[in-house]
From TrEMBL:
CDD domains recorded: TrpRS_core
Subcellular location: Cytoplasm
Stated name of the protein: Tryptophan--tRNA ligase
GO molecular function, one term: tryptophan-tRNA ligase activity
Source organism (scientific name): Labrys monachus
EC number(s) reported in the record: 6.1.1.2
Length: 340
């Protein structure tokens, strides 16, 4: 009953990396072929931890530039930033009143980001998943391409949609909506690299906030930086195995092979068929060449776009206007349903 629609977002918090590209942005580009897509720079999520205002403005433009440079078409689809469409925050408030404290308390991202001193975390950091549910459902989006780390938040979004549909079932029906008002959004966690790991520690995910720059490949790194980070990436002393089963218990090797597979559009088995039995140094050289060939054109285009901030801002303003035309009537229905 719900038309298929894709929604996803990336936070403007600096240091966009290969994990963001393979887990999210590259998938966003792919989804454009089959779906109507809405891609959002989630600036309201970014301020759940303090952001320097000038840095935030720059990071909003940089994520937008990464979207465009990677191949997202802002005319055929929608690219915008969250804070320009007030309906996100409006629906998030309703969802704050639907979601339960217990549900949000179980979110591993909150536990990780809040650390030991939970009392000092912002209320926004705690409520983050309810805003994320609103981001998706204010468009009644059905499919959400994300990395593995967002799986739990998507489950929460489904729980919120289900509870809203149940809590207001009678009102929803009386306003002429059959079979529930919100769809249950499906996570699309696809590709060979849904969880890219740190290059320095195979047990930690590659992340924007890792203090070691050697832990991640940034989307804006030049060829020398990419080659040097891959050369220095941690590995174990064994040669690469010929088959996937041989990667078990070898997280660093598994990570590098998964990155190769995702960047080349091949399967892990195909990559191992070529490089299995060989030394890491040979494989790393090939991986560095492949990474540079995929990322360098995107980095170059990002740089070109960042030199034209007025153009980026115009793309966002146009996208926001078109996003609002979808979100506004859905939010108006929510208000009727709730009794406002
Ligand atoms: P980050 O987690 O880097 O702070 P975001 O929260 O803005 O960035 O995430 C943007 C998208 O990138 C999400 O879909 C997230 O799942 C994905 N992502 C983030 N880190 C990784 C990673 N290491 N591997 C795969 N996908 C990732
Ligand atoms: Na994340």
């Amino acid at each position: 009953k719900f038309a298929e629609r894709v929604f996803s977002g990336v936070q403007p918090t600096g240091n966009l990396h290969l994990g963001n590209y393979l887990g999210a942005i590259q998938r966003f580009v792919e989804m454009q072929k089959s779906h109507d897509c809405i891609y959002c720079v989630v600036d309201q999520h970014a301020i759940t931890v303090w952001q320097d205002p000038k840095g935030l403005q720059n990071a909003i433009r940089e994520v937008t530039a990464a979207f465009l440079a990677a191949g997202i078409d802002p005319k055929a689809h929608i690219v915008f930033n969250q804070s320009q469409v007030a309906e996100h925050a409006e629906l998030a408030w309703v969802f704050n009143c639907v979601a339960r404290m217990g549900w949000l308390s179980r979110m591993t991202q909150f536990k990780e980001k809040a650390g030991k001193d939970r009392e000092a975390a912002s209320v926004g950091l705690f409520a983050y998943p309810a805003l994320m549910a609103a981001d998706i459902l204010v468009y009644r989006a059905t499919h959400v391409p994300v990395g593995e780390d967002q799986k739990q938040h998507l489950e929460l979004a489904r729980d919120i949609a289900t509870k809203f549909n149940n809590d207001f079932a009678e009102s929803i029906a009386s306003h002429g909506h059959n079979g529930g008002f919100f769809p249950l959004p499906e996570p699309l966690i696809q590709g060979a690299a849904t969880r890219v790991m740190s290059l320095r520690d195979g047990t930690k995910k590659m992340s924007k906030s890792d203090p070691s720059d050697l832990s991640r490949i940034n989307m804006t790194d030049d060829a020398d930086a990419i080659a040097s980070k891959i050369r220095k990436a941690r590995t174990d002393p064994e040669p690469l195995p010929g088959e996937e089963a041989g990667l078990k218990g070898r997280p660093e090797a598994e990570n590098l092979v998964a990155i190769f597979a995702a960047l080349s559009g091949r399967t892990v088995a195909e990559v191992l068929a070529e490089f299995g039995g060989g030394q890491f140094s040979t494989f790393k050289t090939a991986l560095a060449d492949l990474t540079v060939s995929q990322l360098a054109p995107i980095a170059g285009e990002m740089k070109r776009l960042m030199a034209e901030p007025a153009h980026i801002d115009a793309v966002l303003a146009d996208g926001s206007e078109r996003a609002r035309t979808i979100a506004a009537p859905i939010m108006a229905s929510v208000k009727d349903i709730v009794g406002f």
